[in-house]
Specification:
Strand content: 15-25%
Structural class: mainly beta
Largest sheet: 7 strands, mixed
Shape: globular
Number of helices: 8
Number of strands: 30
Number of domains: 3
Radius of gyration: 27 Å
Distance between the termini: 43 Å
Helix content: under 10%
């Protein structure tokens, strides 16, 4: 069994920003939708460019209601990252996690502490300041509880980790190769942020891991806090808390185990391929995505209703220069894999500290000079060595983004458990492509959605009311505000909606109205649905508006709320093309999408992908040829083009032929 003290987790390297495009990632923004974010360390250390991210719904003076995703529904997470994943250029992991906490005590997964503003609930806040562990304030955002950060500060760091030639300025868990001086960002624990799976208790529950090294999947799944408890020390002598059982008991302390969350191990799947140096789309022409299921039983006492939740995406990337074998006696990848062992950065630990390119295996140190195997000479004139641009601090770099707070809702009563619910939302922010980058312009999400005739679609969105981009904020309607609607098109090339009596999109099989009272409550027929989706439940509309900035100008959707929930619909089989009338200004964007409802009751799994056939020895019957066939399986969930992107952990089958 791997010793705790040499546990190395996931090693990461190089500058590689990552931005969640849906659900919208904050990148540490509060409500400031445009320009640079105001506080780089508000809730986390993103390591991202300050221009990325989305402000939350509404603004700090009037925050909008958070979105509420139905438990068990299907959500497609989309992101862009600066460097590759899913190719031979790097070893990578994308780790997706969530946490909910609507109370004033610490969330599940970490030791309980006294209740108070610094422990919960999770909140976005209305003040852009970083939460202060010594002076909690209710108007500042909060993800991890104060007690989690304080435990990190007190706990000794894992000295079995690979630190290369970096000098860590201290011995607590706030110091890592990426964060050697222990700088604070929000109330996260830098060691927990930089390594996965973490060895101490964490409030983050695992949803999915995507990697191009599927050999590591069994380890990730088996060591997730979803399924295995995490140890911690209490009552020790001295101020430093040992991070292992032997050290704890040796210091007179008690070694405790935080029970696992008791939920399923995370999915571990093949990462979709992304190209280097490109904050854009994948090979499909669309953003890379992961199909997630909104957790059930995430609320207090195991109920489905859960308030004050957040997701985070961590991006880990490693070049081939920093990988070693799980058997240290095997020093090349070929030897390692021939022996049936795993070659991965995971096994790089403190025994390799201060190694350089002259060691075996060779490991890069800071800005090394190379002679290409003796080919180059440092003789001057026409001769010179080459210097590589390597900073081992950045070789330990983890990038992340997190959502703003959202809720999870129990589906309406009476919906059978075998009915799938898909989320249809809006992503992007106001502005043209230059003003929004590295975020995106408006789009429906997903742009193309395929569902079965027995499936349902939950349609909702939220928008920011402070999107100003340094005075340049191209768009329609009231300045600084994101607003949307849905009108049906005859075809996607049109910019004029269909006549209501010719449209069929809202002639649905069944619908559920989230409005329990008021003028928009009650059962909705085709005409009422068409009107609610077009005018998004505006009131106080002017009869003859004459100003694009006029609040009562409902033609521009200026009177619409920032958060709009249009309910749950079961569409009839057909293909429906639609757009937002406000945001279809041809000079800026085309916010158009397609919904396809199949005649079949549900989407079926796609054909196998990434099929490989490898000959193997057949010692039992040498006259018979034998091969191992490995493949991934496309998920049944088909948020096009997601179904082309997502692959489950490879399945394998051995086939013998001949005689």
């Amino acid at each position: 069994m791997r010793s705790f003290l040499i546990f190395s987790g996931l090693l990461t390297t190089v500058v590689a920003d990552v931005y969640m495009q849906y659900p919208p990632g904050s990148n540490n923004r509060l409500d400031e939708g445009g320009g640079n974010r105001n506080n780089n360390n508000r809730l986390m250390d993103t390591q991202n460019n300050a221009k990325g991210g989305y402000g939350y719904g509404g603004d700090a003076n009037n925050p909008a209601a958070p979105l509420c995703y139905m438990a068990g529904s299907k959500l497609s997470m989309a992101w862009t990252s600066q460097h590759s994943c899913g190719t031979e250029n790097a070893e990578c992991q994308m780790v997706i996690q969530y946490m909910c906490n609507q109370g004033t005590s610490a969330p599940a997964g970490v030791p309980t502490a006294g209740a108070g503003t610094g422990e919960g609930p999770i909140r976005d806040g209305t003040n852009n300041g970083t939460p202060d562990p010594n002076n909690p304030q209710a108007n500042r955002g909060l993800h991890e509880p104060t007690s989690f950060y304080q435990a990190c500060d007190a706990r000794e760091r894992n000295k079995g980790l690979y630190t290369a030639d970096q000098n860590l300025n201290g011995n607590d868990a706030r110091r890592t190769r990426q964060n050697p001086n222990g700088a604070r960002s929000g109330l996260e624990c830098p060691e927990e942020r930089d390594y996965y799976p973490y060895w101490a208790p964490s409030p983050w529950k695992d949803l999915m891991i995507m990697t191009n090294n599927l050999a590591m999947c069994p380890w990730y799944k088996a060591n997730s806090q979803n399924v295995v408890g995490k140890g911690y020390c209490t009552g020790q002598n001295g101020n430093t808390v040992p991070n292992n059982q032997a050290g704890c008991t040796g210091a007179g302390g008690t070694w405790n185990t935080m029970p696992p969350f008791g939920i399923a191990a995370p999915d571990c799947v093949a990462s979709p391929a992304q190209r280097d140096n490109h904050l854009g789309n994948a090979q499909s022409g669309m953003e890379v995505m992961a199909n997630l299921t909104i957790p059930s039983a995430a609320g207090v006492g195991g109920v489905n209703d859960a308030q004050d939740c957040v997701m985070r995406l961590r991006y880990n990337i490693t070049t081939a220069d920093t990988r070693v074998c799980e058997d240290k006696s095997l020093t090349t990848q070929a030897q390692c894999e021939a022996a049936g062992k795993i070659w991965s950065s995971f096994y790089l630990d403190n025994t390799f500290n201060d190694d350089d390119l002259d060691d075996t295996p060779p490991l890069p140190d800071g800005n090394p000079n190379v002679d290409m195997g003796g080919f180059l000479q440092q003789n001057g004139g026409t001769d010179s060595l080459l210097e590589l641009a390597i900073n081992t601090n950045q070789y330990g770099r983890t990038f992340q983004d997190r959502t703003h707070a959202f809720n999870i809702c129990d589906p309406p009563p009476g919906i059978p458990s075998n009915v799938k619910i898909y989320n249809l939302n809006v992503k992007g922010k106001r502005g043209n492509i230059v003003q929004t980058y590295p975020a995106t312009e408006y789009d429906f999400h997903p742009v193309t959605l395929e569902v079965g005739s027995n499936d349902m679609v939950h349609i909702q969105w939220t928008g920011n009311d402070n999107t100003n981009n340094n005075g340049n904020n191209n768009g329609e309607g009231t300045n600084d505000e994101d607003r949307h609607n849905i009108v049906q098109l005859d075809n996607s090339g049109m910019d004029v909606p269909m006549a209501a009596n010719q449209g069929s999109m809202f002639d649905v099989q069944w619908e559920w109205n989230p409005e329990a009272a008021g003028q928009f409550a009650g059962s909705r027929d085709k005409a009422e649905l068409t009107k609610q989706f077009a005018l998004v439940k505006q009131t106080g509309c002017a009869q003859n508006p004459n100003n694009d900035q006029q609040r009562s100008n409902c033609e521009k959707l200026n009177s619409a709320a920032a958060t709009v929930d249009l309910g749950l619909l079961k569409f009839k089989p057909g293909e429906y093309k639609y757009m937002s009338s406000r945001n279809n200004n041809f000079s800026n964007r085309a916010q158009k999408a397609v919904l396809r409802t199949l005649s079949a009751p549900e989407i079926l799994p796609g054909e196998p992908v990434r099929v490989t056939v490898t000959p193997i020895a057949n010692d039992a019957n040498p006259a018979q040829a034998k091969a191992r066939i490995q493949w991934g399986k496309k998920r049944a969930l088909c948020l096009v083009p997601v179904c082309k992107e997502r692959v489950t952990t490879s399945t394998r089958h051995e086939l013998a032929t001949g005689g």
